[in-house]
Design brief:
With 578 residues, the chain is mainly beta. 5% of the residues lie in helices and 46% in strands. Strands 2, 6, 9, 10, 11, 13, 15, 16, 18, 19 and 20 form an 11-stranded mixed β-sheet that branches. Strand 29 and strand 30 form a beta hairpin. The longest helix is centred in the first third of the chain and has 12 residues. The protein is globular.
């Protein structure tokens, strides 16, 4: 796929200014008339190899109708439609390697403009310290042996990822006794290779800057792994290629999740606009009063407030100001187990012993109670603020029950009242719990297990989705679930819509916790499966006719692989801590 980029706003304004202001070029009279501006070279390809940034000088000539050429290079401003590919210093273009692709060079004078095309390729190889320095040469000289066995274990083929994923790992399994591997990530503009020593299993990681170059713009990337034995390097095995699809936009928002980590057990967070950054310790046993454990949490959509509970079920709770880490409620004075904010973050709906209570989000004071709810749990406000979805549960506790049905109930934000009766949304089929509204309010994501397993950390939990108005039956998200027994739980939507492909197909991102294998690094055979946060796209239009709306899932790369990570909650932005 040819990758081109549209003019960014700042470049457009600068170019418009160049065309609309100033005086006519020297020696051309006051009116350039039908003259044309010729930018040269008209087309060129620049190759960034191992970080070496090539440069190219440009000229601009004003060509009169009679063919007379006037050099106006020093009088024009040169810009790129895609500033990530490179930059101009006067008339000299530098290709940085931060992005690869094809874009337009523009130059302008009052009343006339000229363009040229530039293609930037990025090639690079990096030898891991575990591998011999001559690894590229060994693979360059090796013939392909199709009898050798090497297979990519992660990521899954046809995975769809955001452009700003950050770190990008590739895992493989080898059945031929090889001990040196070449990993290639490429498309029409990019060819990046890393060399890593390994054995029967192995993995390599593309760094954030490398991933940024390869993923720049929407398109498809191909991943290939080759393996050879350094004692007999004449031949190399080669894997079947896999395809990695990219969305048309970067993903935004912030993710807060619970983790048990050496640096503090509690809430950690990650700003999705900062790919490659490690997770940030936010509210753990280090920051909480008296070192109390904090786990269950809910964020306001604007990221300014967090509802948290201390020390497990039926214990103390508070509302936290995110910017200052200041609790609004003194410990051991209010209690709830799950909570959800109204869209404007002024109110908080909590549940305690099956009762839903609406509170003032500034101080926790009770504003209203939800009647006719039977025994409730797991509430979530619709983004439009006009309804809630929650579980009508069986006997047990707010967090541990074996029979749950989903209902929706109206809410009047003006009068701060709830509808008299809930409307059934999902009944039967198993234990239904952890419902969550999509950003447009049209879908409800939820978990389901069989009736014999309770809702707390359920190994058989699977991801399901249903139309929020009940107009379509529930559907299991098979591609995201993969299979049974993986604890696919605590699913939530990222707050913004994205798009995919040349037709800009709408999608929403879903994150969830899962104990599935992560390539070769976390497997049942190694006895180290832990819950980690995984992500998959959800395509609403594909629900029509029962078409699978998700794709193979991928692990969010910023996580510590040695921690148990779950209860991921999204917010529209990460608020800095003062």
């Amino acid at each position: 796929m040819i990758r081109t980029r549209s003019v960014v706003l700042s470049a457009s304004l600068a170019f418009a200014f160049a065309l609309g202001c100033g005086t006519a070029p020297k020696g051309t009279g006051q009116d350039a008339g039908p003259s044309t501006l010729v930018v040269e070279p008209a087309t060129i390809t620049l190759d960034v190899v191992n970080g070496v940034q090539p440069t190219q000088d440009y000229t601009a000539n004003l060509v009169a109708p009679d063919g007379t050429r006037t050099d106006v290079t020093d009088q024009v401003s040169f810009i790129l439609d895609d500033s990530a590919i490179g930059y101009f210093d006067h008339h000299t273009l530098t290709a940085t390697g931060a992005g690869a692709g094809q874009t337009t060079v523009r130059a302008g004078l009052p009343g006339v403009q000229g363009t040229a095309q530039v293609k930037v390729l990025v090639h690079g190889s990096r030898v891991d310290p575990s591998a011999p320095a001559d690894a590229p040469a060994l693979f360059g000289a090796a013939a392909t042996d199709t009898a050798k066995q090497v297979a990519i274990a992660y990521p899954p083929d046809q995975v769809i990822v955001p452009q700003n994923l950050g770190d990008f790992e590739v895992h493989w399994r080898d059945g031929s006794g090889d001990n040196l591997f070449e990993v290639t990530l490429r498309d029409d503009f990019t060819d990046l290779r890393i060399y890593v020593a390994g054995g029967a299993t192995g993995w390599g990681k593309y760094l954030p800057a490398e991933w940024s170059s390869a993923s720049h713009g929407a398109g498809d990337l191909t991943v290939i792994v080759r393996g050879l034995d350094t004692a007999a390097p004449q031949t190399a095995g080669i894997s079947a290629p896999i395809t990695v699809h990219l969305t048309n936009e970067a993903i935004l928002g912030g993710l807060y999740y619970w983790a048990a980590a050496g640096g503090g057990e509690g809430i950690w967070r990650h700003d999705m606009s900062k790919p490659g950054d490690p997770p940030e310790k936010f509210f753990t046993t280090t920051e909480t009063p008296a070192g109390r454990c904090v786990a269950c949490h809910s964020l306001s959509r604007d990221g300014t407030k967090m509802a948290v509970t201390y020390d497990g079920g039926n214990k103390s709770a508070t509302i936290l100001d995110v910017a200052t880490l200041t609790p609004a409620i003194a410990p051991d004075t209010m209690y709830w187990n799950f909570a959800t904010f109204t869209p404007d973050a002024t109110k908080l709906l909590t549940v305690f012993n099956g009762q839903l209570t609406l509170r003032n989000a500034a101080n926790g004071d009770v504003l209203a109670t939800v009647q006719n709810t039977s025994v409730a749990s797991h509430p979530d406000f619709a983004p439009q603020g006009d309804k809630i979805v929650y579980v009508q549960r069986s006997a047990g506790s707010d967090w541990e029950f074996t029979g749950g049905n989903l209902v929706v109930q109206s809410y009047d934000p003006v009068n701060v009242t709830f509808g008299d009766m809930p409307t059934p949304l999902v009944t039967g089929g198993g234990n239904n719990f952890y419902p969550s509204f999509s950003p447009d309010g049209q879908w409800v994501l939820f978990n389901r297990t069989d009736n014999n397993e309770d809702s707390y950390n359920a190994p058989t939990a699977e991801l399901w989705v249903v139309k929020a108005d009940g107009s379509a039956p529930p559907m299991k998200l098979a591609a995201a679930d993969i299979g049974p027994g993986l604890t696919n739980s605590w699913a939530r939507w990222a707050p913004f819509q994205s798009s995919f492909g040349p037709n800009n197909e709408p999608l929403y991102w879903i994150t969830f916790s899962s104990k599935r294998e992560f390539g070769v690094r976390s497997t049942a055979a190694l006895n180290n499966l832990r819950p980690q946060i995984w992500m998959t796209p959800f395509f609403p239009a594909r629900m029509t006719g029962g078409t699978e709306p998700t794709a193979p899932s991928f692990r969010l790369p910023f996580q510590d692989i040695g921690t148990n990570n779950h209860i991921a909650q999204w917010t529209e932005r990460v608020v800095p801590v003062n």
